[in-house]
Design goal:
Elements: E1 3-5, H1 7-15, E2 20-22, E3 28-30, H2 32-41, E4 44-46, H3 60-63, H4 72-75, H5 84-87, H6 96-99, H7 116-119, H8 128-131, H9 140-151, H10 159-176, E5 185-187, E6 193-195, E7 203-204, E8 214-219, E9 228-242, E10 246-254, E11 256-260, E12 263-267, E13 272-275, E14 280-296
Parallel strand pairs: 1-3, 2-4
Antiparallel strand pairs: 5-6, 7-8, 8-9, 9-14, 10-13, 10-14, 11-12, 11-14
Helix pairs in contact: 1-2, 9-10
């Protein structure tokens, strides 16, 4: 399974004071955002772990015994180890990496084949899903943006978790992004009325002040109906009500609790409650609820 390198991995590498990430092209997928963050943070992608430095601090005395830090104090204070780096860089392990590019992975980006996909996508099949919109119903930029925001609020997001988050975001956006209809109602010439529930916006129900109850009538007497139909929805609230009409409730989301003196009836999505005329009840939910109500006669309030 290929390893996904995300922007979160780059930021983690930066916080760990790393200057590179080992990401073989055949085993890794690097997101576009990860590449951008890597450029900003100075993190490089390498094909393999760099070899340890070949320069040994013990070798300079062998090549030039006269410059040995052990003997220099006896021969001349001027050759003190403090000043020797200035006169002979070869005697200082700190400066030797500068004389040997092979010891510093940062100074040789040209030797890393991982960077080639940026200039030639055809050379790396692993990067094609990120660069090809055809593989996703939404743009990669949108997925990356949402993913970065989610991961910024989560602790310890590794590459495996990041890959799962990316998959879930893409799936959710592909399944649920829909164009909201211009109107919640469609009235045909034959008198049939279609109500699009996902376009219905709930208004405030003034029968339960301070409870933030939403209610919208969608079918009424103006449609030639002798029944009233509408939507209701709210969160974590209860309110009393006395019905002067018969009512049927079809639950769409959450839980609808109907309390009476004899007990509580709870309906969940797909279930129906009938409440007879003259009932005194308490409508409510401890979580959230959205449902369709049908009343008879049409004038219920």
């Amino acid at each position: 399974m290929k390893q996904l390198i995300s922007a979160a991995d780059i930021r983690q590498a930066k916080s760990d004071n790393k200057t590179f990430i080992v990401a073989p092209a055949k085993d890794s997928i690097i997101t576009p955002e990860a590449r951008e963050v890597a450029k900003v943070e100075g993190i490089e992608f390498l094909e393999a772990m760099p070899e340890p430095t070949s320069v040994s601090p013990a070798t300079p005395p062998a090549t030039s015994p006269a410059t040995s830090p052990v003997t220099s104090p006896a021969t001349s204070p001027a050759t003190s180890p403090v000043t020797s780096p200035a006169t002979s860089p070869a005697t200082s392990p700190v400066t030797s990496p500068a004389t040997s590019p092979a010891t510093s992975p940062v100074t040789s980006p040209a030797t890393s084949p991982v960077t080639s996909p940026a200039t030639s996508p055809a050379t790396s099949p692993a990067t094609s899903p990120a660069t090809s919109p055809a593989t996703s119903p939404v743009s990669t930029a949108n997925v990356d943006s949402i993913q970065a925001e989610i991961e910024s609020h989560l602790p310890n997001v590794d590459s495996e978790k990041s890959a799962k988050i990316q998959t879930l975001i893409a799936r959710a956006m592909g399944e649920f992004i829909q164009k909201t209809p211009d109107s919640p109602r469609q009235i045909n010439d034959d008198g049939i009325v279609l109500v699009r529930g996902n376009a219905v916006k709930l208004e405030t129900f003034d029968g339960a002040p301070g409870k933030n109850i939403g209610l919208t009538d969608v079918i009424g007497a103006e449609d030639g109906s002798n029944m009233g139909v509408g939507y209701m929805g709210w969160e974590n609230a209860f309110f009393p009500w006395t019905l002067t009409y018969d009512e049927v409730n079809v639950v769409l989301e959450g839980e609808l609790h109907v309390k009476t003196a004899s007990g509580t009836t709870i309906a969940k999505p797909g279930e129906v409650i009938f409440i007879p005329k003259g009932s005194t009840v308490e409508f409510g939910t401890p979580t959230h609820v959205r449902y369709v109500y049908i009343t008879y006669p049409v004038e219920w309030a």
